[in-house]
Amino acid sequence: MKRNLFSFLSYFLLLIVALHSCKKEEVTPEDKAVSIKSYDFSVVSAANTSDEGYILNCVDRIVKLDVNGKVQWSKIYTDYLSEDLYNNIAEVFQTMEGGYILTYINWEFYSPTNAYKGFINVIRTDPIGDLIWKRSFSVSKNMDEPLGIYDFNISNTLQRSLGEYIFISSFSEKSGLNKYIIIKLDANGNLTFKRILDFPFNDINDEGLIKKAIQTSDNGYLITGFNRSIFAAKLDASFNKQWDNVYNITLTDPLANNVIEISANNFAISGYADVENSTLSNYEYFMIQIDNNGAQQLFKTFGTGKQDYCFTSSETSDGNIVFLGAKRILTDYTKEVNMYFVKTNMSGDVLWENIYGQNYGMEGVHVKQNTDNTFTLIGYKIGYENSAVGQTIYIRTKSDGSTY
Fold first, then answer.
1. What CATH number has the domain bearing residue 137?
2. CB 87: neighbour CB atoms within 10 A?
3. What is the rounded distance in angstroms from the CA atom of residue 235 to the CA atom of residue 353?
4. Helix H segments across 137-285?
5. What is the tens place of the pLDDT at every residue in 168-221?
6. Is 231 a member of any domain?
């Protein structure tokens, strides 16, 4: 009896220790009290990590923050980045294996076609940001026969399974035709798949840009972007095009920056556009909802019409959507831009809105709803304290978007 009791108590204590060691780091009251933090590096984009923290793309480095916004480590990659044009990190992505994938783009002049040859460059790191391998891949259909590339855009990074990395990006040929490219790499960085597809429009006077690609719940992919109109394309699991569509909304210069999958295989595309179709460029946030066949279900604008720029969005746990970006107040772009955070219902009706920054040139690039229904916002401050160097801004808000 004593032996059984001792065994039970020993097992119980071991269970407590195991549960404690597996517990994720939580937000403390002290960290909530400091609701706005700043760092002396400038973020371009950010992503959530599996430990409830964040990985930040800061142009020439990546920075790891914990759940409370504390810097855990930082790695600079100037030794790996190309010295050619646009040699900045375009995106950082945490892999299923626990490390990170960094992508950036560059061009090289190719004299036989009198044009530029585009490259997707990929860096894979371990969980603390140390290099595992670096690879570069031409945008051309054949490695030795480059197309006449004159523009090439950031790569979206996806992962469907272990040891497989997918990159989707867009470019324009010298002729003006718009294309997008899909490549797939294995765990060692070897090219296993490459396909080039046409945009749903091919006006040689308009540049087609892919801004966001996501994996869908039916194992396919949804891509969105813009030229003078918003477009979307749906691919199956093998990257065969199922449909594409152009949404001719009655606004000037629409820019789609994000797409999320919402309930019942529908999608919400978000961005900003000129709502007055005038030379004043009075932008507002917009949302286009489409179904799984690409048919438009809803179009809604919201904001002040005083140059509101939506950069990202996310569905909330209560079935609504939050949008994050910037609001330009007056005329001085470096000082009079505030971070602008809006929550709407699925019909696009505004539930609340909040502004942060006090005219210090702040823009938001990433939003995450936390398990306690608070929000974490990550953005940057332009030219703070009369300096040309930007700052990264971390904001934790209450569930209604207000700060602590």
1. 2.115.10.20
2. 16
3. 35
4. none
5. 888 777 666 778 889 899 999 999 998 988 877 655 455 667 889 999 999 999
6. yes
